[in-house]
Design brief:
With 65 residues, the chain is an alpha+beta fold. It is 34% helix and 15% strand. The chain has a three-stranded antiparallel beta sheet.
């Protein structure tokens, strides 16, 4: 069997934790910070884990994770 290729968009956006959960950046921080509240910007710092339904989809893109 040949090696499986990882989706290059997924490897830039997602990481797997040791327990197999999918870690990703918080959404909504790319642009348009003027219209966002300070509370939203503060709470959207750092990373979060995806819900199980979304994680199942992303794990297909990371075959050796």
């Amino acid at each position: 069997m040949p090696k499986l290729k990882t989706k290059s968009g997924a490897k830039k956006r997602f990481k797997l934790t040791a327990t197999g959960k999918v870690k990703c950046a918080q959404a909504g921080k790319r642009h348009g910070m003027v219209k966002r509240t300070n509370k939203f910007i503060r709470n959207a710092r750092g990373t979060t884990t995806l819900c199980e339904a979304d994680a199942r989809i992303v794990k297909k893109y990371l075959p050796y994770g």
